[in-house]
Design goal:
The chain is mainly alpha-helical. The chain folds into two domains: 92 residues, Rna Polymerase Sigma Factor, Chain: A; 66 residues, Winged helix-like DNA-binding domain superfamily/Winged helix DNA-binding domain (Arc Repressor Mutant, subunit A, Orthogonal Bundle), CATH 1.10.10. It is 69% helix and 0% strand. It is globular and about 60 Å long. The termini are far apart.
Length: 170
Amino acid sequence: MEKSRSARDDEFTAYVTARTPWLRRVAYLLCQDWHRADDLVQTAVTRLYVNWRRASRADNLDGYARTVLVRGYLAEQRGGWWKRVRVTPETPDGTVAAADHASDLDLRSALAALPPRQRAAVVLRFYCDLSVEQTASVLGCTAGTVKSQTSRGLDALRRTLEQPIAKGER
């Protein structure tokens, strides 16, 4: 028996309310900008709503939502430069403020320097704790590609994080 539209909307609203902070953190790790992360989450939530009937039947709804988010990020990266809007730096909203430590900032900077597919592979493997096969499914590629992208991403992170910090940079 089909759920009523109101029941579907209530179910969708409950899911999105509960999982938005998590989706936002994943989006931030991918794009390194809170405003852009909000845009990515909004796009993913909109796509989820349009496909909610199928999404709500998925075995792993979080995995489905994460896949929509990551694919939206990668599609945005493939777009031309004219599709990107750069917002001038502002003070972050008070609700977003978090206690950042120097090592967190170093890691975020190093992560931001990775190419988009390497960054996505590293975030999915180590932040989202997905297996190689699960990551390959999300990225729409082979397990070998995930392994090579992850390996290259980790090598680049190690090189960046092992560089001595010049006096006065921090």
